[in-house]
Design goal:
With 415 residues, the chain is mainly beta. It folds into two domains: 302 residues, Ribonuclease Inhibitor (Leucine-rich repeat, LRR (right-handed beta-alpha superhelix), Alpha-Beta Horseshoe), CATH 3.80.10; 91 residues. The protein contains two helices and 29 strands. It binds 2-acetamido-2-deoxy-beta-D-glucopyranose (9 copies). InterPro entries: Leu-rich_rpt, LRR_dom_sf, LRR_N_plant-typ.
């Protein structure tokens, strides 16, 4: 009788699956996940249904055999702190907890124990405090995104040890201090020769943009330094990073002359230097024949006529130089650039006659020339989209206020 009962018991256990009694998950990894679950609210329902995250799978947890290899819990409404226990998941390759605004607290130095981590995405949460130096120990890291949190303090020098890093995004925090550069005793971001993306925009970074950050060995594609407090001039060395495609330095306190070798950056399609205090001649962008978007507004460049490159860059879609020092006649050929969509040149000193010519880009949507000194207009019949000449002498004559292009600009003049 006893043996029958025993067999019956075994049969039941067997049909329920062997992993119910023998947990597949590495005991330490299971304990770490239980600890994280204890620290978090809104974990997925499957986390309450088993004690074996790798066997009876927990949603968002990926295992390689018995070891936890990935956490993918982006936008799941998680709340709570990311405790140092996470450091126990020593086989973790990928961690994505992004866009959980309820995740708070500081980043634990024990994140630096995740030695096999390739990908760390903690963007769009509410982490605060400093970026721990220990992140520099993640030698395998290729992708680090800590953007859109409330991180403070400096960018740690040890991040310069992340020699495999491809993507560095620290944007939209409250980081301060300079960009760390290597010295004889400490690493710096200049050593990240595999990095394609430096997104450091919208922080409170200060000091000059270090000339030693850039070299011809760098392979950067995107450099976003906009919306910080950088001072000093644009370093000449920037012109050596020929791989650059998007360069945003707008919204800082940069001064001095734009280095003439900027135009060596012939792969750049977006250039934004607006809202600085740059002086000297308007930069010569001729030969940058992939440029789409150029914004040089709100600087202190020398007064000049429209430069030649206004009419020669075949790919130009958007030209923005508001509150500039441009004068003379606006060249008709500009409007014939085949890709041109928007021309925003308000508050300059263009004068004389505006002649848009007969060969106007089919894409052209907006020509904003308010507050210039234009006294006459020769309109082709071709252009039917928005033209704003409000604040020019041409709109001062009697009858002129009734002309469409003399109407005060409305909301359509969005920037
Ligand atoms: C799984 O683990 C083995 C042994 O550690 C490792 O060689 C392999 O690359 C891992 N596979 C994945 C997909 O991480
Ligand atoms: C945290 O950052 C968000 C934007 O990322 C901001 O709205 C919020 O005010 C910040 N909170 C604190 C306490 O600084
Ligand atoms: C870069 O620009 C400078 C100055 O405009 C020029 O003398 C130099 O030959 C250029 N270098 C390269 C590699 O294109
Ligand atoms: C330039 O500065 C003016 C005045 O501060 C501002 O209204 C305008 O939006 C700025 N334009 C650009 C493109 O930065
Ligand atoms: C009009 O502009 C296009 C593109 O710039 C150019 O290829 C073409 O020759 C121009 N046509 C005339 C009639 O000027
Ligand atoms: C620029 O435009 C404003 C209106 O937005 C005008 O009041 C001002 O006088 C203009 N400033 C310059 C420098 O042209
Ligand atoms: C336009 O401005 C230029 C430069 O300021 C000046 O030399 C020229 O006489 C002006 N032309 C007219 C028609 O006002
Ligand atoms: C337009 O005329 C008024 C009054 O005569 C004058 O004050 C103003 O400066 C003129 N505006 C322009 C853009 O010429
Ligand atoms: C402007 O147009 C209105 C109606 O369309 C007309 O009554 C008025 O006389 C015009 N004003 C001038 C100065 O031409």
């Amino acid at each position: 009788m006893a043996t029958v009962r025993m067999l019956l018991f075994l049969a039941i256990v067997y049909s329920a699956g062997i992993h119910v009694i023998v947990s597949l998950t590495d005991l330490n990894d299971a304990a770490v996940l239980q600890s994280l679950k204890g620290a978090w609210q809104n974990t997925p329902p499957s986390w309450d249904k088993s004690n074996d995250p790798c066997g009876l799978r927990w949603e968002g947890v990926t295992c390689n055999g018995s070891r936890v290899s990935a956490l993918a819990l982006s936008s799941t409404g998680l709340k709570g702190e990311l405790t140092g226990d996470i450091g126990g998941l020593t086989e973790l390759r990928s961690m994505d907890l992004s866009f959980n605004p309820g995740l708070t607290g500081s980043l634990s130095p024990r994140l630096g124990d995740l030695k096999k981590l390739n990908v760390m995405v903690l963007a769009g949460c509410s982490f605060s405090g400093n970026i721990p130096d220990e992140l520099g120990n993640l030698a395998e890291l290729t992708f680090l995104a800590l953007n859109s949190n409330n991180l403070t303090g400096v960018i740690p020098h040890p991040l310069g040890k992340l020699s495999n890093l491809y993507w560095l995004d620290l944007a939209k925090n409250q980081l301060s201090g300079p960009i760390p550069i290597s010295t004889s005793t400490s690493p710096g971001l200049d050593l990240l020769l595999k990095a394609k993306h430096f997104h450091l925009n919208e922080n409170q970074l200060s000091g000059s943009i270090p000339p030693r950050l850039f070299s011809s060995e760098m392979t950067l594609i995107d450099l976003f330094l906009d919306g910080n407090r950088f001072t000093g001039s644009i370093p000449i060395t920037l012109g050596f990073v020929h791989t650059l495609k998007v360069l945003r330095l707008d919204g800082n306190f940069l001064t001095g002359i734009v280095p003439s070798n900027l135009k060596n950056l012939t792969n750049v399609y977006e250039l934004n230097l607006a809202r600085n205090s740059l002086t000297g001649p308007l930069p010569d962008l001729s030969g940058m024949n992939l440029l789409n978007y150029v914004d040089l507004s709100n600087n202190s460049f020398d007064a000049s006529e429209a430069p030649l490159w206004f009419t020669t860059i075949p790919t130009l879609t958007t030209l923005v130089i508001e509150f500039g020092s441009l004068q003379g006649t606006l060249p008709e050929k500009l409007f014939g650039l085949p890709e041109l969509q928007q021309v925003k040149l308000k508050n300059n000193s263009f004068n004389d006659t505006l002649n848009m010519g007969d060969n106007i880009s089919k894409q052209l949507q907006l020509v904003d020339l308010q507050y210039n000194q234009i006294s006459r207009v020769t309109l082709g019949y071709e252009y039917k989209n928005e033209l704003i000449l409000f604040g020019n002498p041409v709109c001062n004559g009697s009858g002129a206020p009734n002309l469409t292009f003399c109407q005060p600009p409305h909301q359509a003049t969005k920037s």
